[in-house]
Write a structure and sequence with these properties.
The protein is mainly alpha-helical. The chain is built from 10 helices and no strands.
């Protein structure tokens, strides 16, 4: 035990998970300042309940869910949620994307419908399994998988329209 009463396992876990949770909440909400505050609040709750959280199948999933719920609550309470959804759908990439993705990918991600964007961020930014994505989104695993499939198809059309087969190119040209 450290002098704060939390064992070193929490400290190690916190250092490993905190950046991922902040990135996930920031990518979903488009608000890095809220993301950092919500992640901090979620980790505070995890610290208070560390023996129970540590024993969970996915402590990282739990803390991500707590942070996202806090972010949603804050956005609802402040009346920013509607404006945020419009803003995210109509603006450039989310602030501070991980360097591995190009700006074009972030622009395409920002253009996705909110549920598809949330699923993609949870799966590929937060690196959570589909079952955990479903749990955080409050859906069945099949629904989460279907949402991810739709999002990937939309991203593929946006990012590489020439990669479609000739029939789809003809259909896309008519739309």
């Amino acid at each position: 035990m450290t002098r704060t009463g939390v064992d070193e396992a929490f400290d190690d876990w916190y250092l490993r998970e905190h950046p991922r949770v902040v990135s996930t909440v920031a990518a979903i909400t488009g608000r890095p300042s809220i993301a950092a505050e919500c992640a901090d609040e979620a980790f505070t709750r995890a610290c208070e309940r560390w023996p129970r959280v540590r024993a969970m199948a996915s402590p990282g999933g739990w803390v991500t869910t707590v942070a996202l719920n806090d972010a949603r609550r804050r956005l609802r309470r402040s009346g920013h949620e509607r404006r945020l959804l419009v803003w995210v759908a109509s603006t450039a990439p989310v602030e501070a994307p991980p360097p591995a993705w190009s700006p074009e990918v972030w622009e395409a991600l920002a253009a996705l419908p909110p549920r598809e964007r949330e699923a993609v961020v949870l799966r590929y930014v937060a690196d959570l399994p589909v079952g955990q994505v479903a749990s955080i989104m409050g859906t069945a695993p099949g629904t989460a998988a279907s949402t991810l499939h739709s999002a990937r198809a939309r991203l593929a059309r946006t990012l590489d329209p020439l990669a479609l087969d000739p029939e789809e190119n003809a259909d896309a040209a008519r739309r």
